[in-house]
Protein 1
Amino acid sequence: MKKVVILGSTGSIGKSALKLIEQFPDDFKVIGISANENLDELYYQIKKYKPLYAALYDEKKSKILRKKVKNIKILSGINGICELAALKEADIILLSVVGSIGLFPLLSAINAHKKIALANKEALIIAGDIIKERLKKSKAEILPVDSEHSAIFQVIKGNLKKEIKKIILTASGGPFFKRKNLKNITVREALNHPTWKMGKKITVDSATLVNKGLEVIEAHYLFDIPFEKIEVVIHPQSIVHSMVEFVDGAIIAQISKPDMKLPIMYALSYPVRMEGILKSLDFTKGLKLDFKKIEAKKFHGFFLAVKAGKIGGSMPACMNAANEIAVKNFIEGKISFDKIPYYIKKAMDEHKLIKNPTLEDILKTDNETRIKIQEMING
């Protein structure tokens, strides 16, 4: 039986993982869960799943939780979440914390030689080189949970890296790929994703296609593939989750219904496949697969994210921080949708690049960019 820790258990990935684990009580046991500030949901999960440990990032709310729950260890703050990430008895850590804050528990899990099901992309975006170096000194293993990276991971298994000609990441295109321009878009429209049910931040990132730019950087680090060998196409049906073209001209795709249950469970159960996760596709019922290029004028945020990845150094941390603050302000109704890439570009244009940043440099870049962009928005 695998002992599982779920960091970010009250988010969409975390909740899906808990429901999946319920189906396999003989195979998995949840021993630790964490949340940012959702006290009520975490309390419900503690009662239902009976973990040995729980953590709340919000220090005040963790004190309230300690009064409500007496029979398990309650941790708090980023140190508490990092402690969960390194639990000695845990067999696998599902890291589904949203945002750059996920860097800290990821590094803790790597230092503790853990198997990590990674559903946080921002950590790799801002500190990919540092994470790669830490992994070289650790027995830790990263298993991707993003549907696209899970697809690539499954496809390249058993093939040599030198045989890969290119990776083809697919993007749903979000709700606006058919729209002529991205002006006057409401928060409600941006959060109405046509295919996936996700958290607010990643849903907005999918609407701007910045998310796909982040995934390009993530693929670069996860699979040690140069940017020149990573292509992105819009695929509205979200049936082909990604493809790999090999040097002999063969293209192999991972195809399934658009449901995060498959990549989540594949990461948790790897190298075993669990039965009955998704229903089969019926190829005889008019299955349609469309593929289109990304429009540079309309989805400028995607190209900015990829540009930041190619520049490297401290630039991805700058780009990611600017995007997080811009998205937050859009959701709060303080800026328009088309201003998100504007603020990303502004931050990147004014950033003083550090070519080989330390962890401290990255954290400083992240913090300073957040403050700067928020000040710009506040006027």
Protein 2
Amino acid sequence: MSTLALINGAPGSGKSTLARLLVDELPLALLLDIDTLRGQLGRWSDNPGAAGMAARRLALAMIRTHLKAGFDVVVPQFLFRLPFILDLERVACDAGARFVEIALVSKPEEAAARFVARMGSSDPNHQGAVRLQQAPGAQSIEELYGAMIELVRDRPGTVLVSSVPGDIEGTFVALKQAVFEAPPNLLPPG
């Protein structure tokens, strides 16, 4: 059975790094970074909301195709609202795949400090996150992280993994255990 693994967590929590390590251990697994996909859309920053929705639609189609072919998909994405998580869950169910939802957790102030530390990065995804964070009316990283924690509290199937600064190897061991040993989280058919 193929697996769709969502790795949720604040910017700087190690989602992308951990997702890459996980994909490197799984034959033909797809690392689907939605922020990278959004960055491939022309002039995405002119309308980030529409670009984000378009990237998510494309991602769901890619995920469905890869899962139905019998391969795993890993999605590192900071999510603090439920609708896209439910979309991911439905796609996994429709494809007959397992859905594993993981949240990388730390302290809110640690999440904010990690985000600030990445602000000088030349990585396009990091720069996109900074651009979105600096937009008028944007919530602080602490507020967004708090919203993610509230969301996962209401989702008993979510596996919490401590994201320990400077300990990628230890965090990765915990992440692998969560992915490979978590009970299947399948929606009922229909």
Protein 3
Amino acid sequence: MGFFQNLLGITPDDSVNKVDAAVAPYNYQQYAQPFDYFGLSSISRADAMKVPSVARARNIMCSTIGSLPLEVRRESNNSKVPTPPFIRQPDPRMTGQSVYTFLAEDLLFTGQGYLRILELGTDGRPLSAEWISVSRVTRTLDAEGHNVRYYSVDGTVVPQNGLGSLIPFTGYDEGLLVRAGITIQTALALEKAVKRFADEPTPNVVLKSNLPMPAERVTALLNSWKEARQTRGTAFVNDTIDFQSIGFSPEQLTLNQARQYMASEIARACNLPEYYVGGSAGGSMTYSNVTAERRSLIDLSLRPLMTCITQRMSDNDITPRGSIVKYNLEEFYSPSAQERADIYTKLIPLGVMTVEEAREREDLINE
């Protein structure tokens, strides 16, 4: 075999057997894209955030994920290892919470997210990176439309690896703006309808003049009518003007019930309990069940987004092989003071925990 390779001038590719030793990051751009909806959102992010229930869902989900601390553990025994600064704060110019909040938002809304490498270490792994909005990124796919040939940011092609290249994050579906775009558009239309009734608090009316009236006087009459209705509900018209009410009142249109229904639909689209966004379903968080509610929030709503981030940050081009990135949920799951006291009264007599360890957990150790 070696004879024919020498004869044909073929050099064996030893890189296949030296993947673990390679320090240069692999080609980020050769990245599979499972969704064909990129850039086809039926509603923009700016319009979606005008809907209170969407903004509420986004802030609960993405801001919570951004506030959770990331740590690195050994994959073999789950023991902690020092967390690199890049994991805690990818961009030195922004807090880590801001970076991960916006990254989670992109994954939630569009099914894609991106960091752009600003600095590399001697091992070829990033030391710093900036968050890049999905709206700034375009992709050029291969002939089959399955894999990315290269990315562009603001119309400029970025390198395939190294400084200036992108670290792509792939979500678990096509994104909320596509999947629930029509639902959000309907909710936005309801918000606009509410604003119209706030601007014109009375039902639509027709003022009919029994005498000819020039256009200027018609305009002046309508303006004065609108101004008067904003200060008093009673109107006076003389015998030359007929008043006729048309359309429906807000009560007849059941706008409040419609908004409640749309809030419930948006909560379902976000995998959130309806009461988180003010939906019509019952249920609420109390002091006694807050821990269970937080676990439910993580397991049913946030974990898919969190996994998209941690698994990508655990890849070998970012984290050394044998280590994985995980969220530390200990503080988020922290039980109430009464529940912690019950735990200590059971563990201390069993010898599982000492009084000093319990005091340390409660920050009662005097320096």
Protein 4
Amino acid sequence: MSSVLAGVTSAKTLPPDPRPAAIYLASLADTSRRAMRSRLNRVARLLGHDRWDGVPWQALRYEQVAGLIAQLQESGEAPASINLALSALRGTAKAAFNLGLVEANDLARIQSIRRVGGERLPRGRAVTADELRALMQACAADPGAAGIRDAAILAVLYAGGLRRAEVVALDVESYDPGTGDLETWPKSGGEEGC
């Protein structure tokens, strides 16, 4: 665990105070409340607690919140999920300030933490001809067997219109050399593959 978070997780002298988070969550619509509670539970687990209502939220300061955001980034969470957690932490910090548990300077520092930039590629996006050409050129530049293997996989993916899960489920029996057909589901009466 990051040393940045040590001050919060080792703050056993401070009793858990769910009031800031509870007040923040109560201020939200039902649908938002579920999402933010989920994010606060994720943060609570990073801090070594089971649930959001076991965290001494009044102990969070700029360095801990910044450390939490960095830890979420390192764990590979999507930028949107990280920004949702940051919003939940900001709202909880504001509630803690309104309860007189956090100083104005500490709240301002937490509020100043920037949102995480970046985006994920949309699912199911078609590969363009230029992208396919670049991938095949990269495979051709690899003098080893991996380049040939990767080019073959790309060709099957592209020509067959297959998804990743379908390609990894293929085996030699999936190909009929007489007809050139490629079967992407089990032959023994199973359900159709991904």
